[in-house]
Write a structure and sequence with these properties.
Elements (H helix, E strand, L loop, with lengths): L2 E2 L5 E3 L5 E8 L2 E12 L6 E6 L5 E3 L7 E6 L4 E6 L8 E11 L4 E5 L3 E5 L2
Parallel strand pairs: 2-11
Antiparallel strand pairs: 1-3, 3-8, 4-5, 4-9, 5-6, 7-8, 9-10, 9-11
């Protein structure tokens, strides 16, 4: 019954910026990891960025310095700020949370994906 609803994707010109949001709703006790993945057409899904509950972050080499992951624990929301976008960033972006519900069970929850297209 936990749902992630992504937003913020769309069409942007090279060099532009987008901000993706991933709010979660449901019976959430806490959220450990908030991760962003992407999958380009014909490519394997890859990890883009991750942020732990202590604020520690990790980035893929292709995005480090351009992308910033953040979280708002009060809103159960993850964000991905994407700057200096290039055509190779075109992909469907997915958020994934590792969380605990009120029964203290760990669960892996995925968003439905949002399409980012970089073209100009």
């Amino acid at each position: 019954q936990v749902h992630l609803v992504e937003s913020g994707g769309g069409l942007v010109q090279p060099g532009g910026s987008l901000r993706l949001s991933c709010p979660a709703s449901g019976n959430i006790f806490n959220i450990n990891d908030m991760d962003w993945y992407r999958q380009a057409p014909g490519k394997e899904r890859e990890l883009v960025a991750t942020i732990a509950n202590n604020g520690s972050t990790n980035y893929a080499d292709s995005t480090k310095g351009r992308f910033t992951i953040s979280r708002d624990n009060a809103k159960n929301t993850a964000y991905l700020q994407m700057n200096s976008l290039a055509p190779e960033d075109t992909a469907v972006y997915y958020c994934k949370f590792i969380l605990r519900t009120f029964d203290f069970l760990y669960r892996e929850i995925w968003g439905q994906g949002t399409l980012v297209t970089v073209s100009g």
